[in-house]
Give the backbone structure.
Amino acid sequence: MIKRVCVYCASSDYSDQVYLNAAYRLGEILAEKSITIVYGGGSAGLMGMLANGALSKGGKVVGIIPQFMYELEWGHEGLTELQIVNNMHERKELMMMNTDAAIALPGGSGTLEELFETITLKRLGVYLNPIILVNIKNFFDPCIQLLENAVIEKFMDERNKLMWKVVDDPSNVLEAIIASPVWTEESRHFATLKKDK
Ligand code: AMP
């Protein structure tokens, strides 16, 4: 049963409308399935659209925002819950905690950093749940190519390619979560490619 997911996405208001619409639609879809969304708590860009989509369908949305962003009035005031934390590290840890999956929509360095930390923690067997990339307008293609190149160049094990799933539309996110292979702490045994000594 999927109860709670965290979503990483852009804070930009200026991206193509197709990205903003996808964020709103993902919010609606998750709310329709009574899945709680945990996200960065912002009101701008894809973040705000995600939250508003979910809230429009009566969904639960938990925002986790650092104090300095809250003071800059970047927080969304209409959420089910807005948790104010000390810093970005605390926020990232709390966002991921107790979630059944992590979902990344397109975004800038903030989104990419959150996505890559989650992938790294999964590789190390610390985060074990599905990671879904919503590849709107093929935004993530270069990112996926880079990850695959890291495997080709033997910086990562071939099995690490099972850590993430890519979908091209928010409507495919839930089935991708369900179809994600089970991942266990055993994965840390192939987290580094070491020569036998
Ligand atoms: P970016 O993709 O670079 O826009 O960064 C988005 C991510 O960084 C979000 O998931 C947030 O955790 C954080 N973030 C960056 N800018 C903001 C903002 N204006 N309000 C709230 N969170 C933000």
